[in-house]
C-alpha cells in the first residue's frame, strides 16, 4: 500500500499515479476519509494513498477533482468516485455479497448511522477545529452522545455483528477526546484516550464501551490515528497554521 508520507500542498509536484492501482486521495485526520480507509482495510483491498493539505490543495488535485473534496477514490479501471458513503458502498461490494458489511445492517440502519454521525460532527467540529467553547457547545456534544448511546442495538451499532454502519459512524465518535479536551482547556500534549468506566463517559456508558471495542479491532488499530495526534493537529488548525504532518 504505497503512501505519500506527507500531505501534498500547492506547489508540490503531482505524484506518480498508477492507473492499474486503486488510489485514495485523502487527509490524515479527515473522518470522511477514515470511513473509506477502514472499509478498504477491513476488506483487505490494496490501494495507494495520497494525502492532501486541505488548506492549500495542489492545482493538479483540483484538476482531478474540481470540487476539491476528499475522499476521492480512483479505481483501477478509471472510475472517479466521490462522497465517502458512496465510496464505502462501492468498496463493500468489491468482494461479493458474502463479505458485505452493508448486508449485515441493511440500508435503513446505514442511513441512520450516517445521520447520527452528521449530527455528532456538527457538534464536535466547531469545538475541535474552530475552538468554540461554552455551555451550549458542551451540551450539544452531550446530547449527540446520548442519542448515539440510545441507538446502539448491541455489541455493535446495528446489533451483534460489525456492519458498515459502524465504519460510517466510528471516525466521528473517535474524535470525542479531542473536542472534550478543548472544552476543558487541556493541552494537546496531555490528551489521554478514554479508559473503561472513564468518568467522562458516565452519562453515555454504552457509547463508551462501543468506542473502546471499535478501537481494539485489528483492522482499525492498524490505521487509526491516536487521540493525542489528532489533538495536536487540531490545535494547529485552530491556530490558523495547519500542520498535517506533525
From TrEMBL:
Q: What GO cellular component entries does it have?
A: cytoplasm
Q: Which PROSITE patterns match?
A: GLUTAREDOXIN_2, GST_CTER, GST_NTER
User: What InterPro entries does the annotation carry?
Assistant: Glutathione-S-Trfase_C-like, Glutathione-S-Trfase_C_sf, Glutathione_S-Trfase, Glutathione_S-Trfase_N, GST_C, GST_Omega/HSP26, Thioredoxin-like_sf
The GO molecular function terms of this record are: glutathione transferase activity
Where does the GST C-terminal domain start and stop, copy by copy?
A: 77-237
Pfam families the UniProt entry points to: GST_C, GST_N_3
UniProt keywords (A-Z) are: Transferase
Domain GST N-terminal, residue spans = 20-99
Q: Which family does it belong to?
A: Belongs to the GST superfamily. Omega family. Belongs to the GST superfamily. Mu family.
Subunit organization: Homodimer.
Described purpose of this protein according to its UniProt entry: Conjugation of reduced glutathione to a wide number of exogenous and endogenous hydrophobic electrophiles.
Designated name of the protein: Glutathione S-transferase omega-1
Q: Which organism is it from?
A: Clonorchis sinensis (Chinese liver fluke)
Amino acid at each position: 500500500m504505497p503512501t505519500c508520507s506527507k500531505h501534498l500542498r500547492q506547489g508540490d509536484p503531482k505524484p506518480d499515479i498508477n492507473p492499474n492501482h486503486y488510489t485514495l486521495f485523502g487527509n490524515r485526520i479527515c473522518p470522511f476519509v477514515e470511513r473509506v480507509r477502514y472499509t478498504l482495510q477491513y476488506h483487505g483491498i490494496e490501494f495507494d494513498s495520497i494525502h492532501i493539505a486541505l488548506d492549500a490543495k495542489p492545482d493538479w488535485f483540483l484538476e482531478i477533482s474540481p470540487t476539491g473534496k476528499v475522499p476521492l477514490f480512483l479505481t483501477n479501471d478509471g472510475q472517479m468516485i466521490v462522497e465517502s458513503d458512496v465510496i464505502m458502498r462501492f468498496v463493500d461490494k468489491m468482494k461479493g455479497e458474502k463479505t458485505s458489511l452493508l448486508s449485515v445492517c441493511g440500508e435503513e440502519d446505514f442511513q441512520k448511522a450516517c445521520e447520527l454521525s452528521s449530527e455528532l460532527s456538527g457538534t464536535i467540529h466547531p469545538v475541535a477545529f474552530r475552538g468554540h467553547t461554552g455551555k451550549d457547545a458542551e451540551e450539544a456534544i452531550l446530547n449527540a452522545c446520548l442519542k448515539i448511546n440510545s441507538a446502539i442495538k448491541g455489541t455493535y451499532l446495528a446489533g451483534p455483528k460489525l456492519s458498515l454502519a459502524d465504519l460510517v459512524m466510528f471516525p466521528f465518535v473517535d474524535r470525542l477526546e479531542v473536542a472534550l479536551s478543548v472544552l476543558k482547556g487541556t493541552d494537546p500534549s496531555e490528551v489521554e484516550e478514554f479508559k473503561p468506566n472513564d468518568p467522562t463517559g458516565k452519562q453515555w456508558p454504552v457509547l463508551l464501551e462501543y468506542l473502546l471495542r471499535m478501537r481494539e479491532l485489528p483492522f482499525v488499530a492498524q490505521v487509526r490515528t491516536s487521540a493525542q495526534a489528532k489533538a495536536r493537529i487540531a490545535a494547529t488548525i485552530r491556530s490558523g497554521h495547519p500542520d498535517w504532518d506533525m
